């Protein structure tokens, strides 16, 4: 378990190169600054930025298939996990979808400021974004699982990986799926929260 800010930074440093670490630090400062203007993350988590947000996002890299080159993050909000992953893996094409204007304009500005050329910000409701196939779909705190799958299945293929941090409700949400959709998922323990799980899946949800 990653406990504390220095452990979280050390964990991230073990996953990404120095340039990405510098960008992640710059991003952390930008989020904290913007949080004065718009409510991006809970104030209580500001002093735990690396553990609660950055390492929490980067831990998804542990479950990403080796051949990944495209990622879609649903409801990116403050940039977690999508922007943090775009910084960690600038060689991927990362699509961030966010419907709130203030947030998507800010995300696009951050991507430009950090020089993330392969990070596309879709400022729209997910329902209105044209379909394209991706290697990985991720989402944190976006929607209940059945709704999430309904809205995003059209971006998946037989080989798409699903990485869904679901907090305490991970196992319960998975168990509540119909059997043919449940079969594509299993729960991985979160490294940043002893009580949280990550739903890891593969494929296109049955019937969607
Ligand atoms: C609870 S926040 C989570 C933000 C971020 N993923 C995180 O964990 O810090 C959910 C975000 O999803 C966005 N959102 C909700 N429904 C959406 C939709 N249908 N299409 C695109 N974005 C949506 C909201 O505007 C909000 O920024």
TrEMBL record:
Keyword rRNA processing tagged: yes
Location (main, coarse): cytoplasm
Keywords for the protein's UniProt record, in alphabetical order: Cytoplasm, Methyltransferase, rRNA processing, S-adenosyl-L-methionine, Transferase
Catalytic function, reaction form: guanosine(527) in 16S rRNA + S-adenosyl-L-methionine = N(7)-methylguanosine(527) in 16S rRNA + S-adenosyl-L-homocysteine
Binding sites annotated in the UniProt record for S-adenosyl-L-methionine: 75, 80, 126-127, 140
EC class name: transferase
Enzyme nomenclature, EC number: 2.1.1.170
One matching Pfam family: GidB
GO cellular component: cytosol
Subcellular location as annotated: Cytoplasm
MF terms (GO), sorted A to Z: rRNA (guanine-N7-)-methyltransferase activity
InterPro entries: rRNA_ssu_MeTfrase_G, SAM-dependent_MTases_sf
Similarity comment text for this entry: Belongs to the methyltransferase superfamily. RNA methyltransferase RsmG family.
Function: Specifically methylates the N7 position of guanine in position 527 of 16S rRNA.
Alphabetized NCBIfam families for the sequence: rsmG_gidB (TIGR00138)
Name assigned to this protein: Ribosomal RNA small subunit methyltransferase G
Source taxonomy: Bacteria, Pseudomonadati, Pseudomonadota, Alphaproteobacteria, Sphingomonadales
Gene: rsmG
């Amino acid at each position: 378990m990653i406990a504390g800010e220095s452990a979280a930074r050390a964990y991230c440093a073990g996953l990404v190169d120095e340039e990405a670490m510098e960008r992640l630090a710059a991003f952390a400062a930008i989020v904290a600054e913007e949080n004065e203007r718009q409510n991006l993350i809970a104030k209580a988590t500001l002093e735990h930025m690396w553990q609660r947000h950055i390492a929490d996002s980067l831990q998804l890299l542990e479950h990403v298939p080796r051949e990944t080159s495209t990622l879609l993050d649903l409801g990116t909000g403050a940039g977690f996990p999508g922007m943090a992953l775009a910084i960690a893996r600038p060689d991927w094409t990362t699509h961030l979808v966010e419907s709130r204007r203030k947030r998507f304009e800010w995300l696009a500005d951050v991507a430009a400021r950090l020089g993330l050329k392969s990070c596309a910000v879709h400022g729209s409701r997910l329902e209105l974004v044209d379909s394209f196939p991706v290697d990985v779909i991720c989402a944190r705190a976006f929607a209940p699982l059945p709704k999430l799958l309904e809205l995003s299945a059209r971006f998946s293929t037989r080989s798409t990986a699903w990485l869904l941090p679901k907090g305490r409700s991970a196992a319960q949400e998975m168990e509540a799926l119909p059997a043919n959709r449940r079969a594509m998922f299993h729960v991985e323990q979160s490294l940043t929260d002893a009580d949280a799980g990550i739903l890891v899946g593969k494929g296109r949800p049955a019937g969607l």
